[in-house]
From TrEMBL:
<dbReference type="InterPro" id="IPR005624">
    <property type="entry name" value="PduO/GlcC-like"/>
</dbReference>
<dbReference type="Pfam" id="PF03928">
    <property type="entry name" value="HbpS-like"/>
</dbReference>
<dbReference type="InterPro" id="IPR038084">
    <property type="entry name" value="PduO/GlcC-like_sf"/>
</dbReference>
<dbReference type="InterPro" id="IPR052517">
    <property type="entry name" value="GlcG_carb_metab_protein"/>
</dbReference>
<protein>
    <recommendedName>
        <fullName>GlcG protein</fullName>
    </recommendedName>
</protein>
Length: 113
């Protein structure tokens, strides 16, 4: 969260396991309540897809709108899978800033796990 502090961001961070259940949260002071749902949704999406949630956002934006009907998936940046030897073991979701910032911070956190 030091990176968030450096950028003067107030974020919500969710970490989910491989079944997309959220066992861990970090809620920074003054982060908006909606950031919790977005971070959890991004992490869940990355865990289900085994790819960054930006992929799902891109699918929706390039005409695969029917994908938006899949329950529990969120077509926004900020979710990144955590891989171990190529297998998804969980995911990180970050919300509270621009999609690009959320994605960058989630990627950096996932790389540390």
């Amino acid at each position: 969260m030091a990176l968030a502090d450096e950028r003067s961001l107030t974020l919500f961070l969710a970490i989910v396991d491989c079944s997309a259940l959220p066992p861990a949260f970090v809620w920074m002071d003054e982060a908006a309540p909606v950031t919790a749902e977005v971070a959890i949704g991004g992490a869940r999406t990355a865990a289900y897809l085994g790819a960054p949630s930006k992929l799902f956002e891109d699918m929706i934006n390039t005409g695969q709108a029917s994908m938006a009907t899949v329950p529990g998936l969120l077509p926004l940046q900020g979710g990144v899978p955590v891989l171990l030897e190529g297998a998804v073991i969980g995911a990180v979701g970050v919300s509270g800033s621009s999609g690009e910032n959320d994605q960058d911070i989630a990627t950096r956190i996932a790389e540390c796990l």
